[in-house]
Task: structure prediction
Amino acid sequence: MTMRERGATTASPYGATGRPGALMSSSRHDRPGQMPGQLTNGDASYRRRLLDGAVALAEDARYASAPRGNEIVGFSDQFQVVFPYRGVLVWHVGHDDVVGDANQVLFVSGGESYRLSEPRAGGFSELVITPRLDVLAEITQTDARDLQDHSLFRRRSRRADPRLQSLRTRFLYCAGHASEIDPLTAESLMDDLLQAALVDDAPRDPPAASSRRLIRRTKEYLEAEFASPISLHQVGHAVGASPAYLTDLFRRVEGVSLHRYVVQLRLARALVELPHAEDLSMLALDVGFSSHSHFSAAFRRAFGCTPSQFRQTTRARHHPSPI
Result:
């Protein structure tokens, strides 16, 4: 893999051993010795190996905001399934500009160059899973030589539904406490996550280039503002479209309304924080809900349990009582 920062003289945040965020491509079994959580460039950017098992390699990639105007340029030599869970990035690959936020799953084909940009400051974090090629071929029921032609890898992204977001959170928490759990538990969760992500949610005709640009701007605005009250008029004004047109286009392209997309962004951020949170009322306000009751009702509709129940079962599942 080759990589450099465009517009900068400094090395990439991950040096020669990887790259920020999704397009990490060092060899599965030939990696430089990096201790979990070790900082590679003296700042808040790092890549932490969570699990290297029979199914796949899983890594937690966190990227501190780069100097304004910089882009990351690199090359991915492996197929990867990437789950952004904090912040937003734009992945420029081929002729596509793909927004990665907590409501999306990204599908990286081996053998492609790319650029990565950050539409707003703040950095971003991703769960990066590099499946074994034979495992990926088996799950997708595709010959390994034809994986790049699979519909998800051609589309490059799909929407992460609440089940996927819940699995992502449970795996991140589970793998982050690997010394305290049965490794089989973490591998089983990772397999469930991959299986769920690699089911093509809904074939759809690709929108026109102008529509893709409008949807991209809309997602960037929603990610930046989801913790604040948002009106449809504000969104339309920010992206330069009439509310009626934007509402119809967004639903047709994303399969959900603008309101539902914002609620799912709020719930996705809450999921990340929930296993560690003590004050659920404060968490509700921090992620944009008007009250704890509003948060709990939305959470129950999406995940079938209350926030406190999710927190309790996540903690209990990975902290078993001694026999």
